């Protein structure tokens, strides 16, 4: 699959494939593109492997347009919309590998419902600790 055309709308990147399909991904996965100007977004090149924005130092593979989760949900959406939460620290608190939690967030792996609840419980526990913090 190769994308022949791309465009941006509604905080998403859309692509038209060489076989006529329209695919999309949320820009929450690509913070540099999310925060880029229209001029920066339109300054790209398409190669055999994907789309490249040299000025933004961003690459999007064609393959990623066919991932199961084009729009983040659950813990992926939570962490992508709250970058102030330190993913590595949450992983350490849970005894998880940071790379596994990162895979859940970027959509390349899907946590079980139980694991997702455990992660969010730890985030809430951190929030409760912060509420109790004394200055």
Question: Which features characterize this protein?
Answer:
three-stranded antiparallel sheet; alpha+beta; 6 helices; 135 residues; 39% helix; single chain; NE0471 N-terminal domain-like; 2 domains
Tally of DSSP helical segments: 6
The count of DSSP E runs of length 2 or more, i.e. the number of strands, is 6
Number of domains: 2
Order of helices and strands: EEEHHEEEHHHH
Poorly predicted spans:
none
In what range is the share of β-strand residues?
Answer: 15-25%
- Give Rg in angstroms: 17 Å
Structure description:
The structure is a single chain. It contains six helices and six strands; from the N terminus they run E-E-E-H-H-E-E-E-H-H-H-H. The strands form two sheets. A three-stranded antiparallel sheet has the order 1-2-3, with no helix packed on it. Strands 4-5-6 form a three-stranded antiparallel sheet, with no helix packed on it. Helix 4 (87-94) packs across helix 6 (113-132). A hairpin with a 2-residue loop joins strand 1 and strand 2. The mean pLDDT is 92. By secondary structure, it is α+β, with helices and mostly antiparallel strands. Helix content is 39%, strand content 21%. It has two domains: 3-66, Uncharacterised protein PF10387, DUF2442 (NE0471 N-terminal domain-like, 2-Layer Sandwich); 74-132.
């Amino acid at each position: 699959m190769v994308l022949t055309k791309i465009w941006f709308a509604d905080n998403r990147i859309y692509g038209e494939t060489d076989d006529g399909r329209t695919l999309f991904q949320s820009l929450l996965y690509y913070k540099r593109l999310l925060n880029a100007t229209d001029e920066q977004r339109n300054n790209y090149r398409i190669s055999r492997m994907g789309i490249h924005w040299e000025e933004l130092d961003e690459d999007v593979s064609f393959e990623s347009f066919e991932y199961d989760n084009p729009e983040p949900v659950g813990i992926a959406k939570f962490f992508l919309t709250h970058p102030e939460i330190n993913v590595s620290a949450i992983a350490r608190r849970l005894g998880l590998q940071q790379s596994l939690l990162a895979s859940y967030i970027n959509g390349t792996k899907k946590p079980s419902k139980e694991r997702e609840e455990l992660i969010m419980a730890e985030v809430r526990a951190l929030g409760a600790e912060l509420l109790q913090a004394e200055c």
